[in-house]
User: Which sequence fits this backbone?
């Protein structure tokens, strides 16, 4: 507990979060963007479990459960939106969502 | 031993993460995502969260990534993307800069703070028991302390399922909505068109 290995877990989590965040910022395929959001959520999950271990608390693992449920709901809605969008215009990128205006 | 497992899994996780971001083909990105999620499941095991490791494999790699791959195959968007062109000038540079700044800040906090970054009392809501099994402990906590959050979660999932059905229903039961014209034919106009004086 509180060892250097726990800090290494936190660093790995930070790096993974940044990788996912940069992916969301630079990729334009909505499916890949959803995957990058999953990366970010998993990085946060990892740090939750690490903090739970450092504090010797079970809640860190329970919060991860709720995050997973929210991630599943988010993916379901996101994929439904992508399907609805692709039905209108196949091969659309995130930039094409501007046609949603007015 | 724990360190060795951590290093190997961390390498898998990072390689998978970079693969998700840099793959030109979305299917390759999804496969890289599976590698990352498996690596994180191993890390969960390493941290003593056995139930979470199993749920990670079943829910994420078994359900979420497969769902993403299904949609990919359904829509046929598994063609390669042109990553060379940069539609927004400076987008990648700015994104990388923001990412590096954030990473630097967090790593600085972790490195400078060392163990002091974890503040607060230990084991407030319940210590991780060395004798009771992980799944039993989590189940007890979920159905006692967190039972309200658990019920709200059920509502969230129901709403998500209903929303997905509503969103992806083909709306042709009343009158068929005409297909919109192709955006390519409409021309690639900017978001806000400022009319110029005398221009036609």
Assistant:
């Amino acid at each position: 507990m509180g060892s250097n290995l726990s800090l290494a877990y936190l660093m790995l989590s930070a790096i993974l979060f940044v990788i996912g965040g940069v992916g969301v910022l630079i990729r334009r395929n909505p499916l890949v963007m959803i995957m990058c959001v999953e990366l970010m959520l998993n990085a946060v999950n990892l740090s939750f479990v690490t903090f739970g271990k450092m504090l010797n608390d079970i809640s860190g693992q329970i919060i991860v459960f709720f995050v997973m449920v929210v991630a599943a709901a988010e993916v379901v809605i996101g994929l439904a939106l992508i399907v609805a969008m692709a039905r209108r215009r196949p091969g659309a990128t995130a930039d094409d969502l501007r046609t949603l205006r007015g | 031993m724990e360190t060795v497992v951590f290093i190997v899994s961390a390498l898998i996780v990072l390689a998978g993460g970079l693969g998700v971001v840099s793959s030109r083909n979305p299917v390759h990105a999804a496969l890289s995502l599976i590698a990352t999620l498996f690596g994180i499941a191993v890390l969960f095991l390493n941290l003593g969260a056995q139930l979470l490791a199993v749920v990670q494999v079943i829910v994420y790699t078994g359900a979420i990534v497969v769902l993403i791959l299904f949609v990919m195959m359904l829509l046929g968007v598994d063609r390669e993307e042109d990553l060379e062109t940069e539609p927004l000038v400076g987008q990648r540079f700015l994104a990388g800069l923001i990412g590096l700044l954030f990473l630097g800040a967090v790593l600085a906090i972790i490195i400078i703070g060392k163990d002091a970054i974890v503040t607060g009392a230990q084991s407030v809501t319940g210590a991780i028991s060395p004798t009771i099994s992980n799944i039993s402990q989590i189940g007890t906590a979920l159905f006692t302390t967190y039972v309200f959050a658990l019920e709200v979660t059920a509502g969230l999932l129901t709403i998500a399922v209903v929303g997905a059905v509503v969103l992806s229903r083909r709306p042709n039961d009343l009158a068929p909505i005409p297909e919109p014209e192709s955006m390519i034919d409409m021309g690639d106009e900017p978001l806000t068109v400022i009319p110029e004086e005398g221009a036609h």
Q: What stands out?
A: The mean pLDDT of chain A is 86. Residues 4-94 of chain A form a domain with the Helix Hairpins fold (CATH 1.10.287.3510).
